[in-house]
Design brief:
This protein has 292 residues and is α/β, with parallel strands linked by helices. It has 13 helices and six strands. A six-stranded mixed beta sheet has the order 2-3-1-4-5-6, sandwiched between helices. Helix 4 (88-96) crosses helix 12 (250-263). The protein is elongated. The termini are far apart.
Length: 292
């Protein structure tokens, strides 16, 4: 009899708990009310999750690739070029986020000092080339001479001619020394650049990015386009070709530049299925030259 009473009591307790749970569930507002007014925020969060679901495995691949580069004494130099606000810096940040900073270094040189102005133009870059087991990522490079320096009048036309005369042999020597040279050109539209400049003016976390040169970039868009066209035509070679990355969508540009980089190396544990490059983002020089 006591066992029956015990079983009855347990059933009653379960029934009470179930009733409480039903009341609690009934008291909750409908899902539609919970998300009302937050639709854009929720969509943004879902998109961010989708982006990270793609980016994170690629960053894991970068870690594997760096270990292979270290263990095999490989020398890697990746150049990130493009117009102002093209997304170069944010791409580099995603490249390096989980890499060993002692073996992967970002080189972002300031304007030349008086001493450097008296040196061979390429000299200050040479001392930052990679040694065995190192990856060097240049946030802008010697191509400043073909772009901003030329357009803004920071160098003479003779210096530009000297640059184009010396550059092919300079890059040939880099490649012949055993350095894997990858050259990225990040291509943002005029509208995207204007939007990003406006964001820099109003965002206290980005205002430091805005320089006097940036403020003139929109007005001199066509001159920059002419300089870009000349540079891409004259400096993309079999041994040091340009890889053009459309960067109006920064997230897609980051993902596809990482995919392209990883595709260049036979590192251990490589997951080829992750490295499918989007031809709408990684485009040819001919396609880029049509984008004015």
């Amino acid at each position: 009899m006591s066992q029956e009473k015990g079983a009855t009591k347990v059933k009653e307790e379960k029934a009470v708990k179930a009733e409480k749970a039903e009341k609690t569930e009934a008291a909750k507002p409908p899902f539609e009310e919970l998300v009302k007014g937050r639709e854009e925020e929720i969509i943004k969060l879902l998109k961010e999750k989708d982006y990270l679901d793609v980016l994170t495995p690629l960053q894991q691949e970068l870690v594997k690739c760096q270990l292979w580069i270290r263990d095999n004494g490989i020398k890697v130099l990746a150049i990130f070029e493009g117009r102002d606000a093209a997304g170069k810096g944010s791409a580099i940040k995603r490249f390096t986020e989980f890499l060993n900073p002692r073996l992967c270094k970002v080189i972002a040189l300031d304007k030349p000092t008086d001493q450097e102005r008296g040196q061979w133009y390429f000299q200050r870059y040479v001392k930052n080339l990679p040694s065995k087991g190192e990856m060097m990522l240049f946030d802008r490079s010697w191509y400043n001479r073909a772009g901003v320096e030329r357009v803004m009048g920071f160098c003479t036309e003779q210096q530009v001619k000297d640059f184009y005369r010396d550059l092919p042999e300079f890059e040939r020597m880099i490649v012949n020394s055993g350095i894997h040279l990858i050259k990225f050109w990040f291509s943002a539209s005029r509208k995207s650049q204007e939007k990003r400049f406006s964001s820099r003016e109003t965002d206290p976390l980005k205002v430091w990015k805005l320089s006097p040169v940036d403020k003139e970039a929109q007005d001199m868009w066509d001159k920059y386009s002419d300089a870009r066209d000349d540079m891409l035509k004259r400096t993309s070679t079999d041994y040091a070709p340009w890889t053009v990355i459309k960067s109006d969508d920064k997230k897609l540009s980051r993902i596809n530049s990482i995919r392209y980089f990883l595709s260049q190396f036979p590192y251990t544990g490589k997951r080829e299925e992750l490295l499918k490059i989007d031809p709408e983002i990684v485009i040819t020089i001919e396609e880029e030259l049509k984008r004015r």
